[in-house]
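[step 3/7] fold_predict: job queued, chain A
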Amino acid sequence: TFNDGRQATFLAVNPLGVQADGAVNESGRVSCSGFNCSVGTREGPDLSQDFVWQSAGRLTDTGYEVEIVLPLKSIRFQSAAVQTWGINVLRVVQSRGQEQTWTPARLGQSSFLAQSGQLVGLEGLRTGRAVDVIPTVTSRVDGGPTSPGWDYHGGSPEFGGSLRWGVTPNLTLNATANPDFSQVESDVGQFAFDPRQALFFPERRPFFLDGVEQFQVPNNLIYTRRIVQPVAATKLTGKAFGTQVGVLAAVDERAVSRSGDNPLFGVLRLARDLGPGSQVGMVYTEQHDGDDLNRVAGIDGRVVLGRVHSVTFNGALAHDRIGGTGTTAPLWGLGYRYNGRAFRTRYSISGIDEAFRTRTGFITRPGIANARLSHSYTWLRPERALQSFTAELAVDGTWVYDSLVGGGDIQDRKLHLNLNSQWGGGWTIGASVLDESFGYDPT
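[step 4/7] structure written:
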């Protein structure tokens, strides 16, 4: 809706009208593992968001038909009088393992969204009064059998609520006080395959999910689940003059504080478009817990060079002060990607100092540096029984951060050979050969 070739609203409908939705934010990162990595050519949607829209579908003699009704107040878009939106329509053919697009889209491109078509001449777009108010009242009664009868103890009711206001078509203000998140789904169980790494649980609370794409930062420097039980919070999200804006302020409950005071959170995220697919951004976060303080400031970006080359970079400094003692430490990363039609490469190197601390983000494992090299080649034969075959060779190394800086030995080594084949009828067959060794952290 901003025609920037980098962000998009994702709406999906099957032939029976069952819907899915989310957001696509191209940042140069493709999530995959094992032999599935050879298939990962572009970034998938983040399905955590839930938009308000309607869909219907029906089967016909020649296939199927679907219809979508999308209220303008459910999405963000430009505020110009005459607008041009980017759009693409995809059809997934499960029986053939194919994906068809409305506009011609090549596999060998750094950006998929930049290859979308356009809706031109859009005029008179209005969201109306986009104001949602959700009041909440919660109460609790405990009881148990006594001799004789039952004994009940009731507490005082608690009042709260949330407000969502579309200030303009491209900016939204949210506020909440004493919110009730009891209806939020439970976290899915996870397996800790490496005890040195902390488990990541995604955000599920509606207040924090609205506009979550504006707070996406490399290395998860913004992780709203650090705000455990907000007493009050407000945020402004959207896009104006080619710049993404995300501002969040929150007061947390005393029960989650070390000092006994209410922890205070502040988050600022700005990102500026630099042509189709390219962007540069900054992030600043701050958390106060009594006299303790944590600040993180960083920059990041993605630069698309031509059609198939892209470079990503990020860096941050964290200052953490507890009990009058403060530390300052860096985090950094650099990546390069070549995404051709047949040949693809991915190079990356990153490092996190052992003393890097963030109380508003999520660091899986501090004190390490990592380097990864990946090369893959795909043979395409769309009209044959074997439609494609991909071979990928990936090398991954992890060092203790101080060892890399001081020229020490590598700690973890990984060599992966991933093979993937796609056959007619939608079948996929893959295999991986892994050679890995792991070292112990120094005591």
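[step 5/7] annotate
The CA atoms of residues 187 and 417 lie 33 Å apart.
The helical segments are 206-209, 401-405.
exit 0
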